[in-house]
Design a protein that fits this description.
Elements: H1 3-28, H2 34-37, E1 42-48, E2 54-61, H3 67-73, H4 76-84, E3 102-106, E4 112-115, E5 119-120, E6 128-129, E7 138-143, E8 150-155, E9 161-166, E10 176-179, E11 184-188
Antiparallel strand pairs: 1-2, 3-4, 3-11, 5-6, 6-10, 7-8, 8-9, 9-10
Length: about 190
């Protein structure tokens, strides 16, 4: 392959990638929640200590920030994944091969989301769980991007996009919560 063909090929690839994300964003747009319309709204979530011990339910004010505020708190990949529903690369993320015992919290608001007790190797290249630590801490919505219909999973406390849930998981739930590592912060259990 000569230099010109390589440059044209790479330019085409970059252009196609940019066009894909432009169309996707136009079709999907950023997630909209009730908190966007009413920043003072409250939600009920179940709180957990870092060791996974359940504390109890709490009514908390939704965490709402501007894009500029989120960009100060998150790295670019975390921002794109959590605030604009992007997807990180499979097999090239922080937690898909993490087998340590611990707790996974929301990278944006620290809400407890998943326990390592429900994590399994799905072979997809993303961290996968067969259930959340508490159903109350998440919510689901229909994602019709990429010309297909999927079920997106978001953090109830801050509306961060976490990933998607599928019905091809293991027993006992049959669910696969396929999450982006960029949306999570892992807290290892200490002995």
């Amino acid at each position: 392959m000569d230099r010109r063909s390589l440059i044209v090929g790479l330019g085409s690839l970059v252009g196609t990638y940019g066009l894909f994300w432009t169309i996707r964003r136009a079709l999907v747009g950023p997630p909209v929640s009730a908190a966007d319309k009413n920043p003072g709204s409250t939600v009920t979530v179940v709180q957990f200590r870092d060791d996974g011990t359940r504390i109890g339910s709490a009514s908390l004010t939704k965490v709402v920030k501007s894009d500029a505020e989120w960009q100060k708190l998150l790295n670019p990949e975390q921002f794109q994944v959590t605030r604009h529903a992007a997807t990180e690369y499979a097999f090239h993320n922080a937690y898909f091969q993490n087998h340590q015992p611990g707790l996974y919290r929301c990278i944006c608001c620290d809400n407890a989301l998943f326990s390592s007790n429900a994590k399994y190797d799905s072979g997809t290249g993303w961290p996968s769980f067969w259930q959340p630590i508490a159903e109350e801490n998440l919510y689901q919505l229909t994602d019709s991007s990429l010309f297909m219909e999927r079920t997106a999973v978001n953090c109830r406390l801050c509306d961060a996009h976490l990933g998607h849930v599928f019905t091809d998981g293991p027993k006992p739930t049959g669910l696969r919560y396929c999450m982006n590592s960029a949306s999570l912060r892992f807290i290892p259990h200490t002995a």
